[in-house]
Every structure is written in C-alpha cells, then in structure tokens.
Amino acid sequence: MNMPKRTSLLAFAFVLLPSSLLAASAQNSTDDLAQCLTNRTENFTGLIRVIHTPQDPTYTPIYELLLQELRFMTNSTPKPWVIVTALKESHIQATIYCSKKHGFQIRIRSGGHDFEGSSYISEVPFVVLDLFQFHSIDIDVETATAWVHSGATLGQLYYEISQKSRTLAFPAGYWSTVGVGGHLAGGGYGALLRKYGLAADNVIDAIVIDVNGTILNRSSMGEDLFWAIRGGGHGNFGVIVSWKVKLVAVPETVTVFKVSRTLEQNATALVHRWQYVAPTIHEDLTMTLRISSVDAPQQIPNRTMLIGFESLFLGGADRLQVLMNASFPELGLTREDCREMSWIESVLMLADIFPNGSSPAILLNRTAVPKQYTKQKADYVEKPISVEGLEGIWKVFSEIEAEAGGMNWTPYGGRMSEIPDSEIAYPHRAGNIFLIYEAVYWNGEKIGPVSPRHVRWVRKLHRYLTPYVSKNPRSAYANYRDYDLGTNNIIPFDNQSVSWGIQYFKNNFKRLVQVKTKVDPGNFFQNEQSIPPSKVTRS
Ligand SMILES: Cc1cc2nc3c(=O)[nH]c(=O)nc-3n(C[C@H](O)[C@H](O)[C@H](O)COP(=O)(O)OP(=O)(O)OC[C@H]3O[C@@H](n4cnc5c(N)ncnc54)[C@H](O)[C@@H]3O)c2cc1C
Ligand SMILES: *[C@@H]1O[C@H](CO)[C@@H](O)[C@H](O)[C@H]1NC(C)=O
Ligand SMILES: *[C@@H]1O[C@H](CO)[C@@H](O)[C@H](O)[C@H]1NC(C)=O
Ligand SMILES: *[C@@H]1O[C@H](CO)[C@@H](O)[C@H](O)[C@H]1NC(C)=O
Ligand SMILES: *[C@@H]1O[C@H](CO)[C@@H](O)[C@H](O)[C@H]1NC(C)=O
Ligand SMILES: *[C@@H]1O[C@H](CO)[C@@H](O)[C@H](O)[C@H]1NC(C)=O
Ligand SMILES: *[C@@H]1O[C@H](CO)[C@@H](O)[C@H](O)[C@H]1NC(C)=O
Ligand SMILES: *[C@@H]1O[C@H](CO)[C@@H](O)[C@H](O)[C@H]1NC(C)=O
Ligand SMILES: *[C@@H]1O[C@H](CO)[C@@H](O)[C@H](O)[C@H]1NC(C)=O
Ligand SMILES: *[C@@H]1O[C@H](CO)[C@@H](O)[C@H](O)[C@H]1NC(C)=O
Ligand SMILES: *[C@@H]1O[C@H](CO)[C@@H](O)[C@H](O)[C@H]1NC(C)=O
Ligand SMILES: *[C@@H]1O[C@H](CO)[C@@H](O)[C@H](O)[C@H]1NC(C)=O
C-alpha cells in the first residue's frame, strides 16, 4: 500500500539524501521562494492572490480543493512549501524560474485526479503549480476545433461544446471533474473511444512551457515533443498550458442503455459472449461493463455478481435494436431499455453520478462529484477470458472487501485498432480487446484513510487476473497511475529501474527517454514515475 511505502521511503531519504539536498531542505527557503515568486508576478496579481504559503488562510482550502483521492487527505501527507494558482502564462514561467533557482521540485495540478496524488505530493521540498483557475475554453464551430486550457475540466469542455452545437462532441472520459491537463497528457478515453479513439488522438496543437520558461507551440516544440506529450505528458517535459483539440461529429440523437444481469440471469455466459461482440460490433456502439458484487438475500449463496451493460450508441434506438438483435440477442435488449437523447444528456447519464433530470450546467461544478478512498489498477486483455476464468473472478468478488470493489471493462476495436502503437506516446492499440479498470473503495471515515485489507483485495484481484491479461510487458495505463508497478528513486538526479515505464509505454518508452534527454536533460520536471533522461546533466 502507498502509505507504508511512503513512510519507508521517507525514512530512507533521511539516511541517504545527498548533502547538497539536505542543505536545501534544512535551510528555510520558503521566504526566498515566495519573495522570488512575488517579485515576478506582482504586476498580475491585483486583488487575486496567486501565491499561497502555509501561513495564508487560502493555503489549506486550495490544497484540498482538488485533492481528489481521500487516502491522501491526512496530516502526514507531505505538503507543498508554496502553492501558485496561476492565472497567466507568466505565473507559470515565474514558478519554473523560482523553483529551479531555489531548489524546489514542481508538481503540476490540473484536475487533481491522479490515483497516486503525484500532482500534489512529493517527498522533497516542492511547489504545487495549481492550474484550476487557468480554465478558459475557446470553441470554433466553423473549424470544429477548440483551444482548452489545462485547468478546465472535461465537464466544462463538454458543457461549452453543447452550448455551441448539438452535433459536435469531444471523445474523452466519463467523469466531469477530471482535468483536461492530466487526462489528455495520459491518453483519455470515454464512450466515444471506438468511434474516435482517445482524447489525445484528437489533439492537433498544444502550448507548453519548458524548463527554460520558453513558451512553445506545435511548430516551435517540434514533432518529437508534440508526440511525447500525447500519452506521456504527465509532468515529464514541461507544463502543458493548453491543448488545441479537434471536435468530432455526433448525431442529434444518440441512444443510451443501461441494463444489468445477475449470475442467476446468465451473467457469466453474457460476459463471456460480450468479449467477442463488444470489440467487433459497429464502432458507433461502445458497450462497457460495470462489474460488482451485490447482496442477494433470498439465495444461497447470498452474494451474486451484478453486471451492468452501459452503452452509448451514435444513432437512434431502432438501428441499435437491429444491431443488437443481430449480434447480441442473448442480452435480450428491449426497446424500453433504450433511451434516445442528445449527446450532452448522454454525458450526464453515463457519468453515473448525477441525479436524474440534472441540468447540463452541473458539469461546470468542480465539486459536484464525491471524493473517495480508493486503490485502483488497470489491465489490458488480448484474448477472451474463459468461463472458468470468469467464475474464478466471481470467487474473488465473494470476499467481504469486494462489497466496495468493482471493475469496468471497456471494449477496444474500432478506431483504436486502426491507430498504430507508435502514432502518439500512448501505445495500447490493436491486439487489445478490452481495458480493465480494477478498483476498491472503503469508508475512510470508519476504517481510516488507508485500509490495508481492501488494498490487499484489489491486489489479489490483479494477481488472479495474471494468466488472462497482457504479458511481457503486463501493460498498464498511465492515466491509472499505480505505484505498485515501481517508482523512481525519490532522490533527484538518479536513474532508476523503469519497469513501470515499459508497462505504461511499451516500445514508445525509448523514444520518450530520448525526448526527455533533449528537452529536460537536467531532469527538473520529475515525479515518482517520470521519464528519466538517459544521462543526467545538472543544469
Ligand atoms: C473518478 C475518476 C474518474 C476517471 N475517469 C476516467 C475516464 O473515464 N477515462 C480515463 O481515461 N481516465 C479516467 N480517469 C483517470 C484520469 O484520466 C487521470 O487520473 C488523469 O491523469 C487526471 O487528470 P487531472 O488533470 O485531473 O489530474 P492531475 O492529478 O492534476 O494530473 C495527473 C498527472 O498529470 C500531471 N499534469 C497535470 N496537469 C499537467 C499539465 N498541465 N502539464 C503537465 N503535466 C500535468 C500531474 O502532475 C500528474 O502527474 C479517472 C480518474 C478518476 C479519479
Ligand atoms: C519558515 O519560515 C516561516 C516564517 O518565515 C515559518 O512560519 C515556518 O515555520 C518556517 N518553516 C520551516 C520548515 O522552518
Ligand atoms: C525582489 O525584488 C527586490 C526589489 O526589486 C530585490 O531587492 C530583491 O532582491 C528581489 N528578491 C528576490 C528574491 O528576487
Ligand atoms: C512590472 O511593471 C513595471 C512597470 O510597468 C516594470 O518595470 C516591471 O518590469 C514589471 N515587472 C514584471 C515582473 O513584469
Ligand atoms: C508558433 O510559434 C511560432 C513562434 O512563436 C510562431 O511564429 C507561429 O506563428 C506559431 N504557430 C502557430 C500555428 O500559432
Ligand atoms: C440462460 O442461458 C441458457 C442457455 O444459453 C438458456 O437456456 C436460458 O434460458 C438462459 N436463462 C435466462 C434466465 O436467460
Ligand atoms: C449470508 O449468509 C451468511 C452465512 O450463510 C450470513 O452470515 C449472512 O448474514 C448472510 N447475508 C445476508 C445479506 O443475508
Ligand atoms: C429485436 O428482438 C426483440 C426481442 O426478440 C423483438 O421484440 C424486436 O422486435 C426485435 N427488433 C428488431 C428491430 O429486430
Ligand atoms: C433514473 O432513470 C433511470 C432510467 O430511466 C431509472 O431506471 C431510475 O430509476 C431513475 N432513478 C431515479 C432516482 O429516478
Ligand atoms: C456543486 O456541488 C456541490 C455538491 O453537490 C454543492 O454543494 C455545491 O453547492 C455545488 N456548487 C454550485 C456552484 O452549484
Ligand atoms: C535551456 O537553456 C539552456 C541555457 O541557455 C540551453 O543550453 C538549453 O538548450 C535550453 N533548453 C531548451 C530545451 O531549450
Ligand atoms: C540509466 O543509466 C545508464 C548508464 O548511464 C544508461 O545506459 C541507461 O540508458 C539509463 N537508463 C535510462 C532508462 O535512462
């Protein structure tokens, strides 16, 4: 689990931290840092505070605003020495300049959804560059493009698009509070995945500020860096200020269905069949599975699996019925199961978190969705899992910790199979039939911020899946960050083993190291799983 590991890493740091670093952290340089920042941002702050030190009343509310993973909401979580809530590019430049000058690390936070808190936790003295106020969105319906600042959320982007057009959309994640900055930097998928690929596949330009504070666009950064930030962009190469994205076409009427089946309703056979149907059916249909266990008090045994089939179809219900009757009659989908609506209504419905009848404006609310205590993992599946394999999964879900556990299975195929692994830094394409998200939740108010037995359960589920998922490497998704895969040594300027790098990026890892070596040879931008330069040069 993360917290014990964190503690041991910290203990290790006290013993082995190089003397130069000890000096940097022992001396109280918060004042120098804050002074440097103030000097370089004074002309822009006006009445809005941009620099927040621990003494400021704004510091804790801002730190906690986008702290989305509650297991890190503890007093012992290492806090930043300063938070900069940038409003302008010059504030980002000042943060880079002053952090470098005074020996601080930077953690960049856009939406704060990182599973391991890498955008707001560091073991060495650090600054959080918080972009939540940096969130403007500029949509051009004529060209079907948009410039989106990193601090915007997916919900804001979806909402703004819907205000301009009923037939444009953007293919990104389900959860409205996820940040555009981190999400597109790691790939980003949602219900339009099979038709249009990842969010990162639809990026056509970007603004990045590099280690020297230089503001770069696609043509000035060059194609290598532009390639790298689409999938490998999490705090590795610089600060992504904004993305220019291509909007995609959706019909005025789309159809959503959500049906569920228990084991007693043949769920095992349906899940088995789903593995053949969902990745190969027409790309207008993305049919995801939500898998959990539930009480079944009238039965022996009294727990059963509940499999939710949740789908977006880019077309009307009649066409969907024809398609489903032809390819997946076993599910028994009826016309009543299908609801026609606009794309923005489908966003609300598929998020699975908003009350029925919510207005799309709820997508603008950064705190509308609950924060949770969780541990999550990922897998990619290349061959259908046998019925025996599925039954073994259900057995893992019969354990008590699984009461708050679950998986989402997202079908690949369609557009995802057409894009080569090397097109952008995100590598998991043809050959995969679906992506598994594995999660466990617990009631932290009762159990405490970390529940070892719940974490053990999700690791057990992951271990159980080993024979059924990708191997050599066992692939993982950078947006589902998991420190169980390994981390860089926390001591800066070290070049450590990188098994996680191969798992997240497969053959693209080598090129990412080359890009890193070129744009940030001194390894200023780093975190527990950042791309290392091949040879570190102190800058
Ligand atoms: C509840 C929930 C639902 C999710 N649903 C989906 C989903 O449907 N589909 C999907 O693909 N993923 C999903 N994710 C995963 C999500 O895409 C990643 O966690 C993503 O990295 C979050 O981006 P963020 O900006 O919110 O996070 P942050 O924590 O702010 O950032 C994530 C990482 O990117 C770095 N970073 C952030 N902004 C920048 C920037 N501007 N420049 C450079 N580096 C930056 C951070 O330092 C950090 O390392 C979900 C996550 C959660 C918690
Ligand atoms: C740094 O200085 C400030 C005030 O100048 C003080 O409040 C804070 O406790 C000091 N921090 C450390 C780590 O010594
Ligand atoms: C800030 O600016 C003042 C005056 O402009 C200067 O004297 C001081 O050295 C600067 N401090 C830092 C930390 O840059
Ligand atoms: C602030 O404004 C003054 C006067 O316009 C200018 O001389 C100075 O360079 C500015 N400082 C910064 C950091 O932009
Ligand atoms: C990119 O930046 C360069 C240099 O600043 C500039 O000349 C060029 O017009 C920019 N390109 C685009 C497409 O904005
Ligand atoms: C389950 O599947 C079997 C065989 O495919 C079928 O005979 C039976 O009617 C199904 N049961 C239900 C409840 O759908
Ligand atoms: C399920 O069965 C077990 C033992 O058979 C019993 O202890 C438990 O209370 C039952 N749970 C429910 C929800 O009925
Ligand atoms: C699909 O199958 C259902 C159930 O068998 C049937 O009621 C419906 O008419 C069929 N619809 C189409 C379009 O084939
Ligand atoms: C919301 O709508 C769905 C689909 O129509 C329905 O099944 C569900 O019961 C509704 N929930 C509430 C709380 O009204
Ligand atoms: C956002 O959602 C939260 C949680 O439901 C609510 O408390 C808050 O009032 C909402 N904010 C706005 C501006 O609607
Ligand atoms: C940053 O500046 C240094 C010193 O001027 C220069 O050697 C290096 O090439 C620059 N890095 C980038 C990525 O432009
Ligand atoms: C680590 O350092 C060694 C020796 O300098 C180098 O050969 C290797 O490529 C580096 N590994 C990475 C992943 O950068």
Structural overview:
GO terms for molecular function: FAD binding; oxidoreductase activity. Its cofactor is FAD. This is FAD-binding PCMH-type domain-containing protein. This protein is of the alpha+beta class and 539 residues long. The chain folds into three domains: 9-130, Uridine Diphospho-n-acetylenolpyruvylglucosamine Reductase, domain 2 (2-Layer Sandwich); 137-249, Uridine Diphospho-n-acetylenolpyruvylglucosamine Reductase, domain 3; 254-341 and 372-468, 3-Layer(aba) Sandwich (Vanillyl-alcohol Oxidase, Chain A, domain 3). It is 33% helix and 20% strand. It is built from 18 helices and 18 strands. The strands form four sheets. A seven-stranded antiparallel β-sheet has the order 15-12-14-13-17-18-16. A five-stranded antiparallel β-sheet has the order 5-6-10-8-9. Helix 3 (30-45) packs antiparallel against helix 5 (89-101) and helix 9 (218-232) packs across helix 18. It is globular, with a radius of gyration of 23 Å. One 2-acetamido-2-deoxy-beta-D-glucopyranose (NAG) binds next to loops.
